[in-house]
Design goal:
Helix content: 55-70%
Strand content: under 5%
Order of helices and strands: HHEEHH
Structural class: mainly alpha
Number of helices: 4
Strand order of the largest sheet: 1-2
Radius of gyration: 19 Å
Distance between the termini: 36 Å
Number of strands: 2
Largest sheet: 2 strands, antiparallel
Length: about 140
């Protein structure tokens, strides 16, 4: 799956869950992305690990089962069956990526092309800066 395919899947899921019933204006969408960054900062300030919580219903289904404290026990054993929710700094940063992909897909952006163009620019700009500083 490439980034455009992931962005489409993320956006389709957001649409299915009602996030785009009334399309947000750009400032509102950007604030939602910023809110996820703020949530990551809160996790950091609270001393949270990168990943914790309930990552899967069964440890064998979760690559993070070694660091999650409630694998296989949704909501501490009380609550509903179904997919469990991972928490932590890395998870909030993943939300930033997902909300960004959702927005870019909604705007019709070729995410693959934009990300690669910006990455290539950054690589070239770093080479120029290294030469300027005499580090090349």
């Amino acid at each position: 799956m490439n980034i455009n395919q992931l962005a489409k899947e993320v956006h389709d899921n957001a649409v299915a869950h009602g996030w785009w019933d009334k399309p947000p204006v750009l400032p509102e969408a950007l604030c939602l992305i910023h809110a996820e960054l703020s949530a990551a900062l809160r996790e950091y300030q609270d001393g949270a690990p990168l990943i914790y919580g309930t990552c899967a219903l069964a440890a064998e289904d979760c690559k993070f089962s070694g660091v999650c404290d409630r694998v296989g026990r949704p909501r501490g054993g009380r609550g509903i069956d179904g997919p469990c929710k991972p928490e932590g700094i890395a998870v909030e940063l993943a939300d930033v990526i997902l909300r960004t992909l959702d927005l870019m897909a909604a705007l019709g952006v070729d995410v693959d092309a934009v990300v690669m163009a910006k990455h290539k620019y950054n690589l070239a700009a770093q080479e120029v800066e290294d030469r300027r500083r005499g580090n090349a």
